[in-house]
Amino acid sequence: MYTRPRIIPVLLIDDGDLIKTKQFGSPTYLGDPVNAVKIFNRKGIDELAILDISATRLEKEPDFELLKDIASQAFMPLSYGGGIKSVEQVRKLIATGYEKIVINTEFVKNPEFIKAAVELAGGQSVVVSIDVKEINCQYKCAISDGREIIDASPVELAKKAEELGAGEIFLNSIDRDGMMQGYDIELVKNVADAVNIPVTACGGASGIQDLKRVLQEGKAHAAAAGSMFVFYGRLKAVLITVPTEAELTESGIYCAFI
């Protein structure tokens, strides 16, 4: 028997393509997202997050045809974020096979939407995404794929999300995104200590030890990452790779009990 904090690969979609960013910019093309999902199927991952970074920017609704194709090939729990503005979209995503709906911009612009989404799908299925950038030594939040800085701290937004009924926080560091230099442990711990709902940390992971630190020192309930799952080696060749269960157990992330 194992205690298993969740390890979550994050796939970024930009106009139908699978990409990876650095600090929410400088996208690298990786290929077809459906093919990537097929490979992850064989890796035994806990959950897969699909984030469409162009949907909000281009003011488009979720690409339901692509999302249907992804869901048809996925044999793990799925979460999706990007361009979600209506309860009908939430209903359609749940029906398509997505267990969790990730909401960022609309949470700030229309907080009551979170209540409506929770009423429809239940709090366990509604995740509020908080994108954070450090400005003048202070944590500030951003919406619209990091393009608009708002006057709110991540702790303030996390508490508000919990009050509205969201069941989870997806906390993403813009500064650490794609840099593979470790999570912002202080940021994660501050938010995790402030709320009673699970916090998933994202941004900066380069390997197993980063996952371990954010789970143990940062008090995250789950560790999400992009680059460490799609790049390999010093030259960052595109290769989907996931730590094995034995490696995660040996590192102390998974704990075995007799």
UniProtKB/TrEMBL annotation:
Heterodimer of HisH and HisF. SUPFAM superfamilies: Ribulose-phoshate binding barrel (SSF51366). Its EC number is 4.3.2.10. IGPS catalyzes the conversion of PRFAR and glutamine to IGP, AICAR and glutamate. The HisF subunit catalyzes the cyclization activity that produces IGP and AICAR from PRFAR using the ammonia provided by the HisH subunit. InterPro entries: Aldolase_TIM (IPR013785), His_biosynth (IPR006062), HisF (IPR004651), IGPS_HisA/HisF (IPR050064), RibuloseP-bd_barrel (IPR011060). Belongs to the HisA/HisF family. The keyword Amino-acid biosynthesis applies. Transmembrane segments: none annotated. This is imidazole glycerol-phosphate synthase. PANTHER family: IMIDAZOLE GLYCEROL PHOSPHATE SYNTHASE HISHF, IMIDAZOLE GLYCEROL PHOSPHATE SYNTHASE SUBUNIT HISF/H IGP SYNTHASE SUBUNIT HISF/H. It comes from the Bacteria. Coiled coil: none annotated. Keywords: Amino-acid biosynthesis, Histidine biosynthesis, Lyase. Pathway: Amino-acid biosynthesis; L-histidine biosynthesis; L-histidine from 5-phospho-alpha-D-ribose 1-diphosphate: step 5/9. It is an enzyme of class 4 (lyase). Pfam families: His_biosynth (PF00977). GO terms for biological process: L-histidine biosynthetic process. One of its GO terms (molecular function) is imidazoleglycerol-phosphate synthase activity.
